[in-house]
Amino acid sequence: MNTKASLSRRDLLKKGSTGLAALAVGPSLLALSQPLSARTLADVGPLLPPDSNGIRLPEGFTSRIIAAAGQRVRRSFWNRTAYHWHSYPDGGATFAAADGGWVYVSNSETINLLGGGASAIRFNPDGSVNDAYRILDGTNLNCAGGPTPWQTWLSCEETDYGRVYECDPFGQQPARLRRGLGFFKHEAAAIDPVFNMVYLTEDESDGRFYRFIPAGVNNNGSLQLDEGVLQVAAVDDQGYVTWLNVPNATPNLFETPTREQLPQSTAFDGGEGCWYSHGRVYFTTKGDNKVWQLDTNLNRLTVIYDAATAETPVLTGVDNLTVSGGGDLLVAEDGGDMQIVVIDKQGDVAPLLQVTGQEDSEITGPAFSPNGQRLYFSSQRGSDLFGGGNGFGITYEIRGPFGNFVKL
């Protein structure tokens, strides 16, 4: 960590986010009053042999293929939608629909000429597929991103001077470029709905960890993402963060990249997934196989998993992540053992599932359905036994007793 930005804790709190006066009743302190779960997803038991889809799951869990790259998304075996699923599926999230169904959104990490952008699958209340469609075109290498509390999807380009587009998961409104979130090699985004800020990761070996303070809040509760202040983290040797204003958040090819504009800011080795939950922002760095936690009340950053020091480094190739309704952190592996691994609130680490026979792929886009009963994810370069995905990606659904685990 960078020691040049060392300040007292009191100073750091003063320099932290606006609204820190809410510290005494912040969500992280409220979470501490919740009873500890008697069981977590780390306790589901050993993984069984691969099922018919090549996925190892705990007892009581099942898998199904939802979509395969290049193939029309199926409603049933004989009934297909008109939409061909995109290749190289990456970051994803779900959104509740008014009829009790939901939408799963997925990015396409390829160039515009080969698809790019993002797509969505609409589910009925019983979990059956209703439709599939595009929600973003004309962009490149859309890697991860993040959902917003106002039911939109932030799709991030992982390119030099990449951009962020706000998309309608239901396909009713056109996607919009959000300049306020900066131009850099974006990976993921997470919104803190308490302090109204956006946190962003950067996929560079010397990438930075950013936050965006919007100019205001719209009448519908959404944040103004075109105007505001982009900041970068400078971390002292105790983990406390000072947020520095980026001088030029939207540089062009001939200007200094955002990560190089403030040398006193802290470098992170390959920022990947990012997720907000109950006063914490979690993110991963693939270059050093670490999982980080930012306490948004205290502006303090800690490492909650480090493969180099873990007694049993079950988790490697850290990438996309999400949080279950019970507060368990789920981290997808890029390579590694092709697992989704649980880190529970007690710090226990265990695999939840493993994809076999696809060692050259990576797991992407883990997201629970709004009711918490189903888990979606993709094998980005996977193919099934019948050629589904053709090495360009498959999207899966996992069902099981997720509801047995205490929700916050």
TrEMBL record:
<dbReference type="InterPro" id="IPR006311">
    <property type="entry name" value="TAT_signal"/>
</dbReference>
<keyword id="KW-0732">Signal</keyword>
<dbReference type="InterPro" id="IPR015943">
    <property type="entry name" value="WD40/YVTN_repeat-like_dom_sf"/>
</dbReference>
<dbReference type="InterPro" id="IPR019546">
    <property type="entry name" value="TAT_signal_bac_arc"/>
</dbReference>
<dbReference type="InterPro" id="IPR008557">
    <property type="entry name" value="PhoX"/>
</dbReference>
<protein>
    <submittedName>
        <fullName>DUF839 domain-containing protein</fullName>
    </submittedName>
</protein>
<dbReference type="Pfam" id="PF05787">
    <property type="entry name" value="PhoX"/>
</dbReference>
